[in-house]
Amino acid sequence: MFRSHTCGELRLQNVNSQVTLAGWVQTVRKFGSITFVDLRDRYGITQLLFGEELNAMLDENPLGREFVLQVTGIVSERSNKNKNIPTGDIEINVESFKILNKSAVPPFTIQDDTDGGDDLRMKYRFLDLRRNAVKKNLELRYAVNRATRDYLHQQGFMDIETPFLIKSTPEGARDFVVPSRMNPGQFYALPQSPQTFKQLLMVSGYDRYYQIVKCFRDEDLRADRQPEFTQIDCEMAFVEQEDILNMFEGLIKYIFKAVKNIDYTEAVERMTWEDAMWNYGNDKPDIRFDMKVANLKSAFNKAGSIVATGELINGAGFGVFDNAETVLAIAVPGASEYTRKQIDELTDWVKRPQVGMQGMVNIKCNADGTFKSSVDKFFSEDKLKAIAAFANAKPGDLILILAGPEERTRKAISDLRLELGERLGLRKKNEYRLLWVLDFPLFEYAEEDNRWVARHHPFTSPKPSHIEVMINNDPVIENAAEYLKHPYSNIKANAYDMVLNGNEIGGGSIRIFQRELQEKMFSALGMSKEEALHKFGFLLGAFEYGAPPHGGIAFGFDRLCAILGGSESIRDFIAFPKNNSGRDVMLDAPATIDDKQLQELQIQLDLEKKA
Amino acid sequence: MFRSHTCGELRLQNVNSQVTLAGWVQTVRKFGSITFVDLRDRYGITQLLFGEELNAMLDENPLGREFVLQVTGIVSERSNKNKNIPTGDIEINVESFKILNKSAVPPFTIQDDTDGGDDLRMKYRFLDLRRNAVKKNLELRYAVNRATRDYLHQQGFMDIETPFLIKSTPEGARDFVVPSRMNPGQFYALPQSPQTFKQLLMVSGYDRYYQIVKCFRDEDLRADRQPEFTQIDCEMAFVEQEDILNMFEGLIKYIFKAVKNIDYTEAVERMTWEDAMWNYGNDKPDIRFDMKVANLKSAFNKAGSIVATGELINGAGFGVFDNAETVLAIAVPGASEYTRKQIDELTDWVKRPQVGMQGMVNIKCNADGTFKSSVDKFFSEDKLKAIAAFANAKPGDLILILAGPEERTRKAISDLRLELGERLGLRKKNEYRLLWVLDFPLFEYAEEDNRWVARHHPFTSPKPSHIEVMINNDPVIENAAEYLKHPYSNIKANAYDMVLNGNEIGGGSIRIFQRELQEKMFSALGMSKEEALHKFGFLLGAFEYGAPPHGGIAFGFDRLCAILGGSESIRDFIAFPKNNSGRDVMLDAPATIDDKQLQELQIQLDLEKKA
C-alpha cells in the first residue's frame, strides 16, 4: 500500500502517530521557510506541513498542482484549525516525501467553481471527474444503485442479465445495429430496453426480475438525451396494477430514505392522465404547487368526458377568445400588483418561439375585491368575477390567460405555470412530491402514417373493460381529421407513469399475456401477420406455453439520479457522457475504422454526396 | 395479487387457512372422482386436490401440462406425506379455480432430466428456463452477483458505469462495431473490457472502482465462448501487487462463504508462471491433486533458469527419447497394476488428434520395488529407479512418459495429468483449491508478424527490476528463430491470474502509469507514435496530469458461476446464450435489416461471392 490512511481520515485522536498519505496536490502555499500543501484524494483533503529542512528539497523538486505525492510524517494538532473540513483540526508534519507522478498544469482548475467551459471539461473528463461537484454526483448515483438493489433484493427480485446483441425490431425508436462478421449481411441490434426478455422471463416463471441496465436509442439527440442510458428495469408476474404501484412507490421511498434521509411516509398521490392534462396541461405535473389550469373554453378532451365551459367567455365580442380553439388560465398567487413592465416581460416570455403564443391576457384580482383586466372593455366586472371564481383566483392573485390552438396553448400554459412556480419559489429544491399518473390512452394517432401507434409500447394491455372495444372495432381510420371519433381514441391502457417534481422518472404497464390479444394489438398498429411473426414470433410463441399475467416498470436511472442530486442535467451524473452529436470528445469516438474491418464485416461505406 | 402465498411456502402450521395460489401445472393425476395436480412456481411445488364436485368442472375444462392456474382452497394435512419437498406435508383442498392461461403441449418435458436436445431447448429457451436445473444456475449467478457487490461495497469500492459505445482500437481481439448515423462513415466499438476507462477513473481519483459489466469480442467462437460475456471488473489506486492479491482472494473467499457456505480459511497458494509450466505443463494448474510433471530432458524454460536433466535418459540408445525435444513424465499413483489393455487405451487417448502424441512409454513401479517398463531393453533397473525417483514415483505407481516437440508435449502431459486426475477421482467436485499464478512474461512473440505482443495487455507494467531491460533494448528481432534469446523474452510482468480447480477465473496486473513508459510499451509492440496517439491519445494525455500508481483485475463472471455450480459449460449459467455461430436461435438473431436502415447509416452490404 502506498498509504496508511486516506486524506479524509485523520482526526485529533491520531495526533502523534506516524502516517503515510498519498494523493494529489491541491494547493501549495509558501511562507518563508515553511510550505503548506493541501493533499487531496477521494476521501478528503489533509494539510501537509513541510518544515525548513524539507523545504530545501522542495525547492529542488517543486510541487505543482495535481502532482501525485506520497508523504510520511507525524499527525499534529493545528494551531489555526479549519472548521470547514473534517480533517481541519490536524496537519501532517512531513518527514519524507516522494513525487509519485508529475502533472502538467491542468487546463482548468480542479474546484467546485471551475474556470473550465463545457467543451474543455468534456475533453478532459478525467480531470473534470476529480472535481468534488462531479464526484458527489457519481457517489449519489452509486448510492441510488445500491439502495435500489437492496430494496429489490429484500422484495425477492432477481437480477437476471439479458443479452445486448439482439434482433432489430424497428417499431418506436431507431435501433443501433451491429454487423455480424460470422453471419455476413446480418445485423444484431442493441436493445432499446430488455422489454421482450423480461416478459419471456415472466413466462419462464422468474416472477420478480430486475436489472440496472444500459439501453440504446439511435435518436436525434435533444439536449440532455444520451444515445446510451441506464434503466432500472423491473417486471413481476401474478400481479395487478395496484401491486406494481405499491411495490415501486416503495422502491422510490426506500431510495429517498437511503440516499437523502427523507421519510416519505405519505401515500403517493394518483391522478388520471385526463385529469393531469386538464388541470396542468401536462402529463407529468409538478404538484409541489397548485396553480391549476382553468379551461375557459373547450375541454381538451374532445372525447367529451369533461364538460366544456365556453359560456364564460364566448360571445363577449373579444375575437381572440371567440376564435381560439382553446383558452386556458392560471391564477398566479399574490401577483396582482405586478407592474406593467413585469407583465410585459411575461408576455414576451410566452411569445418566444419556444412557447409560441400570440399574446397574453391578464386579470388582476385586486386585494379589495375589484378587478382590472387587459380586456376590460369586453368583459364586465361580473364576468371577470365569474372567470376568477372559475380559475380559483383569490383577491391578490393575477390571472394569466392564453388562447390559441389546443395543443400549443396547453403546452404554453403548462410552461408558464412551471416558470411562475420557479420564479415564485414554489418549486422548492428540497421538497419531493411523487405522483402516479394513470389511465393513459392505449393508442396515439400518427398523422404522417394515418395509423395508430402504441402510446407506451405494443405490449401494453388495454384496461380490461376496454378490451372488447379493441377487439370489436376495425383500426382503419376513414377520415383522418376525425380520428378522435374513432373508438380507439377512448381506449385506456393499464399504464402508469411515476412523476417526481414534474419529471417522468418511470413508466410501465400491465402487459398483454394472451397470444390472440397480442396479435390483435400488432394488427391494430398496422403490422401484417407476417411482419408480426418475423419481428415478435418468439414472444407470440412464448405466449402459447402458459404465459402468466404480468406487468412491470422501468425507471430512467440517469434522470432519477439527476433529480435527487438537484440538477436538470443527466450528463452531470454520467461518468463518461456523450455530447449532443453523440460524440465522446475525450475518446474522439465514433471514428473511422480500418478497411480490413469493413472487409471482414462485408459492408462498405455509402456516403451521401454533400451538395 | 393473484396469490396469497407461493407454491413453496405452505407448511403444517398453515393447515385450515384459506389460501390462493397461482402457478404452472406440473402434473395431473386422476384417481376416480379425485384429481391431484402439482402446481409449480419459482419457489416450489404444492399438491392440489380437486374433489368430486370440482372434478366435473375439470372434465369440462381439462388441465394440461404448463397451464397457468389459479386456485383458492383450504390447506390440509396430507395422509401420504412427501418427504422430498418442503411442502410435502400439506395439500390444498381446492374450492375454486381459474385457468389464467392455457398451454400448448411443450416440445420437451419441464424436468431436471428433460427429453429435449440442446437445439430444441435453445429455441424454446423460455421453457428451458422453467426447468429447476437451469433456475438453480441463475439463482446461483444472482447469489454470486450479490456477494460480489456486498464484499466490494464493504471494501469501499464504487460501481461506476463506463460507456458501451466507445472507440475501436484493434489490438488484441476483434471489436464489434456500431455504425453511427449521426456521424456517417464513423463507427463506435463495443468494449472488449472497460480497461482504459477504469484506468482513467484511477487518474480521476476514484481509487476503488468496480463493475459487473458486459464485454464483447468478435472472435471465432470455440465451444463455450460467447460473443458477449460478463466480467467482474475492478481497479485500485495507490496499491502494489500484494494489496490486490489480498483484496481479491478476499472476494473469492467471501463468495465461497456466501454462496457455497465454504470457509476457505487457508491462504491462497502462489506459484510463478515458470513453476506452473515446469511442474504442471500448464499456466492454470489444477492443484487439487499432485502428480507433478517431471522434465526428463530439456527444461521448457529455454531462458535457462532451471537446470536441464537430460543425463537421466540421453544416450541410452532409445531414439525416441534421444531425438525428442522434450521428454515429460508423470507418476500415476497406485496404477502399477494397470493391465496391458488399460495402458493401450491410455496410449490411444494420447494419440488422438486433439492430443497428437506418437506414443507413450510406461514404467511400472511394482509394489515389491522392482520395475517393469515398455523400454526395458534400453534402460537398466538402476536407470529406471533413478527415473522413478526423479518423477517422485512410489512403489505401486505407474510412470507415463511422453516425448516430442516441446509445446505439444507439454500440453499433452498436462491433458493426460488432468484426465488421469479425473479418472482417479482426484478432481473432487466439492473441493475448491485457489491458486495465484504470478510473474507472467510481459511479452509473447507473434511469429506471423515477427513482433512482440503483450501477453496480458499493453497497459501491464513490467516488474520494476525489468523496466530497464525494456527501455534499454530495441524490440527488433533480427533472427526470428532465436527470439528466445532476445532480452524481451525474459521480462516478467506485474501480472497475476487467479486459478480455481484448473480454470483461470480472473487475471490482472499492475499498470503502467507513466506516459513515457506507456509510449515505450506501444513502440515495443510495433505501434508508431501516430498510431499510438490515434488509438490511445486520451490515455497518454491522462497520464500527463497526475496518474497514480494503480492496478486491477477482472474475473470472468460466467465461468466463475459455472465452476461454483459444478458445470463445465458457461452457457448453462447465462439466461439467453448464443450458439457457436453467435446466433440467438430463439430470437433468430442476427438478421437482415431494412434497406431504409442501411441507407440511414450510409452503409451497404458488400457480400463476398461464394465460389
Automatic annotation (TrEMBL), chains A, B:
Sites binding L-aspartate sit at E171, R217, H456, R511
What's one GO-annotated cellular component? Answer: cytoplasm
Under NCBIfam families, the record lists:
aspS_bact, PRK00476.1
PANTHER family from the UniProt entry: ASPARTATE--TRNA LIGASE, MITOCHONDRIAL, ASPARTYL/LYSYL-TRNA SYNTHETASE
Sorted alphabetically, the keyword list is: Aminoacyl-tRNA synthetase, ATP-binding, Cytoplasm, Ligase, Nucleotide-binding, Protein biosynthesis
Family named by the database record: Belongs to the class-II aminoacyl-tRNA synthetase family. Type 1 subfamily.
What reaction is this protein's catalytic activity? Answer: tRNA(Asp) + L-aspartate + ATP = L-aspartyl-tRNA(Asp) + AMP + diphosphate
Q: What functional role does this protein have?
A: Catalyzes the attachment of L-aspartate to tRNA(Asp) in a two-step reaction: L-aspartate is first activated by ATP to form Asp-AMP and then transferred to the acceptor end of tRNA(Asp).
Q: What is its EC number?
A: 6.1.1.12
Alphabetical list of InterPro entries matching this protein? Aa-tRNA-synt_II, aa-tRNA-synth_II, aa-tRNA-synth_II/BPL/LPL, Asp-tRNA-ligase_1, Asp-tRNA-ligase_1_N, Asp/Asn-tRNA-synth_IIb, AspRS_core, GAD-like_sf
> Does the keyword section mention DNA-binding?
no
Q: Which residue ranges are recorded for the region named Aspartate?
A: 195-198
Domain Aminoacyl-transfer RNA synthetases class-II family profile residue range list:
138-577
Q: Which residues bind ATP?
A: R217, D218, E219, Q226, E504, G556, F557, D558, R559
**What's the protein name?**
Aspartate--tRNA ligase
Q: What GO molecular function annotations does the UniProt record carry, in alphabetical order?
A: aspartate-tRNA ligase activity; ATP binding; nucleic acid binding
List the lineage, top down. Bacteria, Pseudomonadati, Bacteroidota, Chitinophagia, Chitinophagales
The subunit structure is: Homodimer.
Which gene name does the record give? aspS
